[in-house]
Amino acid sequence: MKNYQILIIGGGTAGITVAAQFKNKDASLKMAIIEPSEKHYYQPAWTLVGAGTFNYKDTIRDEADYIPKGVDWIKDKATGVNPETNTVSTEKSGDFTYNFLVLAPGLVMAPELLPGLTEALGKGVVCSNYTNSEHTWEVLQNFKGGNAVFTQAAGPIKCGGAPQKIMYLAEEYFHKSGVRKKTNVIFATPAPSIFSVPEFAKTLNKILIDRDIIFKAFYSPIRIDAEKQDIYFRYGKPGATNCTVTDVEKTGEELVGDIEVKMHFDMLHLAPPQAAPKFIRESVVSIQDGPSKGWVDVDINTLQHMRFANIFALGDVAALPTGKTGAAVRKQAPVVVGNILNLIKTKQLGKVVYSGYSSCPLVTGYGRMVLAEFKYDNIRDSDPLISKFVDTTKEQYSMWLLKKYGLPFMYWNLMLRGKA
């Protein structure tokens, strides 16, 4: 059974970034990455693909080109983690042991958790940038008017702002295609507000009003009838025992229970339910009960496992009260790397901590973007240098250029090389 000083599960954004930073600091480390995929995807651009302003092929590169030199690539699926024996099992390659384990396998789409979604997703007028952004673009181009519904499942999802980004772009596209006047653009979310950070919510609320977008708070999708093109929501305001349906004349939505609403759609874009990979959920490394059940149990500042000191986790799989984004990984990676290197050398954790930083580049139209940066407790955490020149709480063309050109360049050439 082969042993590694540092074993990383996952060759996505988090796994590759961590591996590159480790190798940049100490080339002698004996390391491996367990990752089955031959391809690496720049997922933040899928919003732009879905709006017809980015080529999907440009979001894909070969995984082999980004595995750091000197790191073994175990091209296989992890199937189990046993922290009691410091062992990771794989589908075909057997078991591996580790001195330190970094969990960065990301998350998985779980459409089966929303009745009717598995059958409907990616077909006809039901689309999702999370699963097939090229189909989203087809749906937008074929849309002739009616209810354009944008929503997201309750629970943690990758890039929580993504469901509304495509909605803003679609609304603008409908003007270009000549169907906006006969269209209701509806954004229905389980959340209580359009965005959790007040400084950015103020701008986004004004956009909703100015562009006549119908906003539905506390709307959690519970099932889909693809044949009739109806989606059902549960009104989830805390303590609510009934709800009042508004905008009936416009949207035709209908109360079908005390807190259940039916809404017809002529196109539907949604973020599916999402979960930690099965082998994580079934391992003792995950939280066993409560609202964070299934996600990896880590200290929110050190990213060290709460029960197993030689395990760390970062990225989407970690149970952290902040946005699951690549920008969060960029701040998490140095904490994981620094802590493990300190443990190897001094048996002590490092002093660098993660404050919950995440970023959501909120594309609000073709050529406009609000750069929402925040940390734990929904506190604004905008870059002090950028903020000197640009008010990132407002729509900016410069931030659009950052999204379309700057961030992809930084991702491929700096972040995945361990340099940013």
Helix-strand blueprint:
Blueprint: E1 2-9, H1 13-25, E2 31-34, E3 39-41, H2 46-50, E4 60-62, E5 71-74, E6 78-82, E7 87-90, E8 95-103, E9 108-109, H3 117-120, E10 126-127, H4 133-142, E11 146-152, H5 162-177, E12 183-188, H6 198-210, E13 214-216, E14 219-225, E15 230-235, H7 248-251, E16 254-255, E17 260-264, E18 267-271, E19 274-275, H8 278-281, E20 311-313, H9 326-346, E21 358-365, E22 368-375, E23 379-380, H10 384-389, H11 397-413
Please provide a written account of the structure.
The protein has 420 residues and is an alpha/beta fold. It folds into two domains: 2-107 and 276-353, FAD/NAD(P)-binding domain (3-Layer(bba) Sandwich); 110-273, FAD/NAD(P)-binding domain (3-Layer(bba) Sandwich). Helix content is 27%, strand content 26%. It has eleven helices and 23 strands. It has helices at 13-25, 46-50, 117-120, 133-142, 162-177, 198-210, 248-251, 278-281, 326-346, 384-389, 397-413; strands at 2-9, 31-34, 39-41, 60-62, 71-74, 78-82, 87-90, 95-103, 108-109, 126-127, 146-152, 183-188, 214-216, 219-225, 230-235, 254-255, 260-264, 267-271, 274-275, 311-313, 358-365, 368-375, 379-380. Strands 1, 2, 5, 6, 7, 8 and 20 form a seven-stranded mixed beta sheet that branches. Helix 1 packs parallel to helix 9 (326-346). The mean pLDDT is 96.
Provide the CATH superfamily of the largest domain.
Answer: FAD/NAD(P)-binding domain
> What structural class do the secondary elements suggest?
alpha/beta
How many domain modules? Answer: 2
Beta-strand percent range: 25-35%
**Rg calculated over all Cα atoms:** 22 Å
> Fraction of residues in helices?
25-40%
What spatial form do the alpha-carbon principal axes imply?
globular
User: N- to C-terminal separation?
Assistant: 35 Å
Got a strand count?
23
Unreliable parts: none
What is the CATH domain class of the largest domain? Answer: Alpha Beta
